[in-house]
């Protein structure tokens, strides 16, 4: 109800919010009323005025500023009737092209369509390459990032993939990071895994330096996003890098650290030294030597480690294979962004307040990725917003001021999704 906005099939293809303003988001102003805002902090009932892709104003409905007549006529009003409004989720580890390919060509996962993200409350993704950085490459990755941007999602990526030498477009990873705007760091570089290229300590140090220097040159995140496997070396290399090099700890960003309990303990210790660690919301069976992302976050926060140094991502589009002792795939699953809201729901069921759980999905990845206007609900931030229904599902999803999901249904779809 109240959604009278025209359907814009092609918003700005650039992910930057200032471009979004120039590309159609100024056509209307959106007024959200009665939103129970978690910024992530619990702020209670608020009204929000949204225009130009950003939150222009937030406050009590009584204090709503008067709008110039020309704008007031075009205001679309949505009464959220007390639904919880949170920052759009940032999924920092997504195989946007589809990952997989670890058990033959038929196991290459197809590209992930727009509504697989939007219906899951995800408004920003970081795309990357994994095991298969041969049939997939940076061209494919960038093209998919641009496609998702054209469809209205905030999309970024990492340079390289699992293996050294890294797959690059310009011939060097620093070239890729400095010259290709969507790429924020290097990843997912595999270590302690039989699928890795067995990178040496010096190679890892060199790549961390490339990421860091590129970050300095561009103001981008400049992180080395490390895929951790089941290998017993765990996070040895990262500990060594922190003690033997000048590279800041924040550059080293290990993911999948909840895949074993011992690895998780190593990662929590590193977070105390300044690394951001990433938990993966993969399915965990009872009795498995792993923590679910929900259990991992509970344990992380209970440990007293810094609350702002932990993130949760989904591994969407990636294959979640189980290997036998010979290294053959014995069973397979595909990750999906819906695992993030499922994790948020599990945390709520476990009694964690929403404002405690949210930063790992919003403000923390925004800070790690240096996306300064994302991850928070406040005046001046990008209007990437999710209203949760009573069961914790995505009721309304707004990306840079554009409505993608209303009452749990996609009102915008990817180019090849059935209408
Ligand atoms: Zn991985």
Q: Can you summarize this structure?
A:
The chain has 419 residues and is an alpha/beta fold. Helix content is 25%, strand content 24%. Zinc ion binds at residues 130, 188, 227, 256.
Walkthrough of the structure:
With 419 residues, this protein is of the alpha/beta class. It has helices spanning 17-22, 69-72, 114-118, 138-150, 173-179, 201-218, 236-244, 261-272, 293-302, 338-349, 354-357, 363-368; strands at 29-38, 42-51, 54-59, 75-79, 84-87, 89-94, 122-127, 154-159, 183-191, 223-228, 252-255, 277-280, 310-313, 322-323, 329-331, 385-388, 394-399, 402-406, 409-410. β12, α9 (293-302) and β13 form a beta-alpha-beta unit. The longest helix has 18 residues, at 201-218. The chain starts with 16 loop residues before the first helix and ends in a 9-residue tail after the last strand. Zinc ion is lined by residues 130, 188, 227, 256.
The total beta strand count reads: 19
Rounded to an integer in angstroms, the radius of gyration calculated over CA atoms is: 21 Å
Beta-strand portion reads 15-25%
**Main sheet properties:** 9 strands, mixed
Bound molecules: zinc ion
Query: What is the helix tally?
Result: 12
* Ends apart, CA distance between termini: 21 Å
Helix amount, in percent?
Answer: 25-40%
Q: Tell the overall outline.
A: globular
Give the overall pLDDT as a whole number. 92
Uncertain residue ranges:
1-26
Global structural class? alpha/beta
């Amino acid at each position: 109800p109240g959604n009278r906005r025209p359907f814009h099939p092609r918003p700005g293809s650039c992910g930057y919010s200032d471009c979004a303003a120039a590309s159609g988001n100024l056509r209307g102003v959106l007024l959200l009323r009665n939103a129970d805002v978690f910024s992530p902090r619990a702020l209670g009932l608020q009204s929000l005025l949204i225009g130009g892709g950003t939150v222009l104003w937030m406050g009590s409905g009584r204090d709503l500023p008067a709008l110039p007549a020309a704008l007031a006529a075009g205001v679309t009003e949505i009464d959220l009737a007390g639904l919880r409004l949170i920052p759009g989720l940032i999924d920092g580890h997504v195989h946007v092209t589809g990952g997989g390919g670890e058990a033959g060509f038929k196991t290459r996962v197809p590209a992930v369509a727009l509504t697989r993200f939007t219906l899951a409350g995800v408004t920003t993704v970081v795309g990357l390459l994994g095991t298969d950085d041969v049939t997939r490459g940076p061209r494919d990755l960038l093209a998919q990032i641009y496609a998702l941007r054209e469809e209205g999602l905030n999309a970024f990526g990492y340079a390289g993939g699992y293996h050294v030498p890294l797959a690059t477009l310009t011939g060097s990873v620093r070239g890729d990071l400095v010259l290709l705007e969507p790429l924020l760091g290097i990843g997912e570089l595999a270590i302690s895994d039989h699928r890795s290229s067995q990178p040496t300590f010096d190679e890892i140090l060199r790549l961390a330096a490339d990421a860091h220097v590129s970050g300095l040159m561009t103001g981008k995140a400049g992180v080395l996003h490390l895929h951790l496997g089941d290998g017993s070396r765990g996070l040895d290399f990262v500990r060594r890098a922190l003690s033997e090099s000048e590279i800041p700890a924040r550059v080293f960003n290990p993911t999948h650290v909840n895949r074993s309990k011992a690895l998780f303990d190593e990662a929590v210790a590193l977070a105390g030294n300044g690394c951001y660690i990433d938990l993966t919301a993969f399915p965990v069976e009872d009795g498995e030597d792993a923590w679910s992302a929900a259990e991992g976050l509970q344990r992380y926060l209970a440990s007293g480690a810094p609350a702002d140094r932990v993130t949760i991502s989904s591994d969407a589009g990636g294959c979640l294979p189980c290997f036998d002792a010979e290294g053959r795939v014995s069973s397979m699953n595909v990750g999906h962004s819906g695992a993030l809201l499922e994790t948020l729901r599990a945390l709520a069921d476990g009694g964690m307040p929403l404002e405690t759980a949210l930063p790992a999905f919003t403000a923390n990845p925004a800070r790690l990725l240096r996306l300064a206007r994302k991850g928070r609900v406040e005046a001046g931030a990008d209007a990437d917003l999710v209203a949760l229904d009573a069961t914790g599902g995505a009721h309304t999803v707004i990306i840079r001021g554009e409505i993608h999901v209303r009452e749990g249904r996609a009102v915008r779809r990817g180019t090849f999704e059935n209408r």
